[in-house]
Amino acid sequence: MKPLSVLHDTFGRPLLNLRISVTQQCNYNCTYCHREGEAEQSNNVEMTVEEIVRIAKVAVDLGVTRVKLTGGEPLMRKDLCQIVSGIADIAGLKDLSLTTNGSMLSDIAKELHTAGLNRINISLATLNSEIYHKLTSGTLDKALAGIEAAVKAGFNPVKLNMVILKGINEQDSSDMIAYAEKTRVILQLIELDPVNINDTYYKQYHHSLDEQKEMLRQKALNIKQRHFMHNRLIYHLPNTTTIEVVHPIENTDFCMHCTRLRITSNGKLKPCLMQNNQLTDILTPIRQGADNEKLKQLFKQANQQREPYNKNTNT
Fold first, then answer.
1. In angstroms, how far apart are the furthest CA atoms of the chain?
2. CB atoms within 10 A of CB 214
3. CA-CA distances (angstroms) from residue 74 to 48, 169, 271, 292?
């Protein structure tokens, strides 16, 4: 089989990952959610299963090897398993994952795994049920049941996304690490992004992860970097526990090593999480009968618009 030619942007960054928002609908109302950077709410326009699979196929033909399904809450779509199955069948795809709040996962985890989903990220900011409800409007027990079901279904790995919020859960990381060890999942400690939240919220709740990083450094058996995932640090702790630390845009490594392109829920190619001024409509051409060569040109156009958001920021 002929090797795929990977696209690079004007900064030399390869395009390896595609994040597809399959819906803006969500059963939660998380105060810190960035909704994949979608500024406009577009619940009236969603891509069909066939359109999503076709876009993913075009991306893989251009060298993308990893696809993540996002939202909103992807499990709000009743046809999610069909989407998963269609993308999983694409030759050349190496990894298909999903991000979810986990509240509806317990009933469908096994079916998603059978359909071809490889990995799952589950948002879990706290193990305190009262705080969890205040942050999300949801029920902690449902999320925990979803995590248990994901592990039992055989997803490897299952990752927990813990956004650290000042005055809310910054002291809870040790409890979460213990929970990750108990459930044999990977924990991601994530710094709050200033995306789709107001300045007042960001200033009030943003918390640097320096304290958590120092704690992990002291405990870690070894520390590695994920070179094609923003150079994020991975801490391997005793008892086989793995913790990843995710810095937002203030960290120049985050932007300078980005390998992602996004598809908004209403079918637009989005080169950067932080920007909405360079969107390329791919859904309208599909619905007007565009062939795959035209869609590839749109991908190439969007890829050339990818650039590090903070390229002029000094570390």
1. 57
2. 10
3. 13, 26, 21, 26
Contact 76, 28 (CB under 8 A): no
Among 109, 20, 107, smallest CA distance to 72 is for 20
pLDDT, tens digit (0-9, with 9 covering 90-100), for 75-103:
999 999 999 999 999 999 999 999 999 99
Report how far residue 21's alpha carbon sits from residue 35's, in angstroms, rounded to the nearest whole number. Answer: 9
Which pTM value belongs to this model? 0.91
Give helix 173-183 / helix 210-219 axis angle, nearest 10°.
Answer: 50
pLDDT computed for residue 295 by the predictor: 98
The H or E element spanning position 121 is strand 119-123
Write b or e for each residue in 241-252: b if 16 or more Cβ atoms lie within 10 A of its Cβ, otherwise e. bbbbbbbbbebb
Identify the bridge partners of residue 243 per DSSP, sorted by sequence position. Answer: 187, 235
How many Å apart are CA 126 and CA 31, to the nearest integer?
14
Residues pairing with 120 in the sheet: 98, 158
- Report the distance separating Cα 119 and Cα 87, nearest Å: 14
Per-residue pLDDT tens digits for 12-60: 999 999 999 999 999 999 988 888 878 666 557 899 999 999 999 999 9
Over residues 199-254, the pLDDT tens digits come to: 999 999 999 998 899 999 999 999 998 665 556 789 999 887 899 998 765 556 66
Report residue 259 as tokens.
């390998």
Unique residue bearing structure tokens 């086989």: 240
CA angle centred on 254, ends 250 and 255, rounded to 5°: 90
Separation of first and last alpha carbons in the chain: 42
- Reduced to 3 states (helix: H, G, I; strand: E, B; else coil), residue 66 is strand
pLDDT of residue 313: 45
Fill in the amino acid letter for 68. Answer: K
How do residues 117-141 score in pLDDT, each as one tens digit? 999 999 999 999 999 999 999 999 9
Residue owning tokens 């943003």: 206
CA separation for the pair 17, 265 (Å, rounded):
17
